[in-house]
Amino acid sequence: MEECVRREEEGEKEEKQGEEEKKEEEEEKGEDKEGSTENKERIRKESKFCYHTFGVGMEHLPLRHEENGAARATRENDPQREDLRGNFGNLEARASIKRLEFKHTRKNRRSLLYIDDTPDSLLEEDASTFSPQSVGRLVGGSLLLARPGLGGAGTTAGGGGGARDVGVLGVKEDKEEGELAVPRDGKSRRRYRSRSLSQSSTDSYSTSSYTGSSSEEDEISPREKSQRNSKGSSDFCVKNISQSAFGRREIEIAEQEMPGIVALRKRAADDKPLKGAKIVGCTHINAQTAVLIETLVELGASVRWAACNIFSTQNEVAAALAEAGQPVFAWRGESEEDFWWCIDRCINTENWQPNMILDDGGDTTHLMLKKYPAMFKMIKGICEESVTGVHRLYQLSKAGKLTVPAMNVNDSVTKTMFDNLYSCRESIIDSLKRATDVMFGGKQVVVCGYGEVGKGCCQALKGLGCTVYVTEIDPVCALQACMDGFRVVKLSEVIRQVDILVTATGNKNVVTRDHMDKMKNGTIVCNMGHSNTEIDVNSLRTPDLTWEKVRSQVDHVLWPDGKRIILLAEGRLVNLSCSSVPSFVVSITSCTQALALIELFNAPAGRYKSDVYLLPKKMDEYVASLHLPTFDAHLTELSDEQAKYMGLNKAGPFKPNYYRY
């Protein structure tokens, strides 16, 4: 009995369901009829779509209902016949668009976008390659096609009928992208779908790759190109001389934040204290360095310049310098062979012999001493601004191979306190954020080295909520770290738990393969010291490990068990490879370098012997005074009685050379 009742209920249910389906089909057939003016108007009101671009509301497009129940927008039926191409941004230049169609099928809720007469080369691209002003509104690569009255979080789109709340039509990816769909007119069109919101929300953008280009032209090595500037000179080697206009704008922006070096340029331009100086430079080539180079030229020097880091060069800035007539040999992404070739081109050239060296890392000094020893003896002075380069100078001096005087700019107060501390305190955060989009709060970080660079990194990371550990070999620096609230550990004690590792020692093999084998999955590894020696990157280039390029200066190194670490800038300076440094701080360092060159070049014979010297305290104070007007700072002056009591000159210097700030 119960079985009979159950079968009877199921039969009634199936009969009812069949009647509902039949009714729905009849309704759809009725909707597809276009004979009734009233029906046309109802469809027009209910199915009108709004295509919303960034800040531009397009006119509402009329719809013509298809026999299959889909809504279709055609430009031919638009009574206003507005030219849609004006709202399509870059798409207009890439494709001839006659008609834009949007189809929404009721049964499977599938949204399709058709573009007529569009080249396959355009249609085969991913949706993310469309410009933001292309069809519809692109948010993280997703195309939003809006319709009034649709549910979900709304946005406001301005159209012909005024602003309306609109929702987002999702895309059901039931077929492969690029599949041809045949609409009612029988004309085949490639179906193109936007990516889903959930997919595009994971996309990120980093401005760390703002230099360079992906064009085939830029794949050619600059050494193989034949380039000339507007003056007809070819005495340079840069990525693309046509980028000079962009580089010039960046240099002009940097000048606004470099008051000290600009003030020095104006004060000494008439005296030309570097007239006759032939300076070979090897530093980072960016907008800030360009201001220094042009200042040296303004002061009378002749220069030739190469880059001290293969990843820190701003190609457009190098092009701007070359266009201005400065022999520059540098581009971003040099090989090791290119690196030494560029330095050699600066040193060894016809009718020009250097008499001064401005070095960062000691590479120019090393190459000239090894390859051109006779030329090295003619050098009047060397200025070195890095820890690594200073160590090499002291080693040469100790071995009796340093035959010229050298100025240790790195350990000057203005370089140590401001460039090393304050600059790194800002640039470490900027670099990590741009490269990895990391959230700092709660992360465990180990900083190797607690010198001025390490201090700046620790302060910045601690300020953003990181738990910071410090490794240090010097008991004085270790005690400073403890007093500043950091735990001093051995790297092996915390290597398994840290999320971020930063090196700032100036030494080599601080982080070895054994350390990296023990790191947890996703650890970020970067260097704030010098060169690429602090992290043993070569040990990672083995067959058992896989390298994946993520974006510019960001690599994933994969272990066989699936673990990966995130290596930034291949172990080179992360703040100059993945971001930049504050121009104001570089102004302080640039002034120090310029004054050191002036001092060595104009010093009478016998004042400086073949040794390494610190910048005179008076010059440190002068550099600082050039930057005080920026802050509207006013110094207190000593009275005669006070100066006599302290045993000081009223004009300075105010501290002895052994004083530590």
Short description:
By secondary structure, the chain is an alpha/beta fold. The protein contains 23 helices and 25 strands. The longest helix is centred in the first third of the chain and has 31 residues, at 2-32.
Architecture overview:
Helix content is 36%, strand content 15%. The protein has 661 residues and is α/β, with parallel strands linked by helices. The protein has 4 domains: 1-28; 33-200, no CATH class; 227-415 and 613-633, Rossmann fold, CATH 3.40.50.1480; 430-577, Rossmann fold (3-Layer(aba) Sandwich), CATH 3.40.50. Helix 14 links the parallel strand 15 (381-384) and strand 16. Helix 7 packs across helix 9 (287-298). The longest helix is centred in the N-terminal third of the chain and has 31 residues, at 2-32. The protein is globular and about 115 Å long. The N and C termini lie far apart (100 Å). Mean pLDDT is 77; it is low at 45-214. This is Adenosylhomocysteinase. It catalyses: S-adenosyl-L-homocysteine + H2O = L-homocysteine + adenosine. Its cofactor is NAD(+). Residues 195-214 have a biased composition (Low complexity).
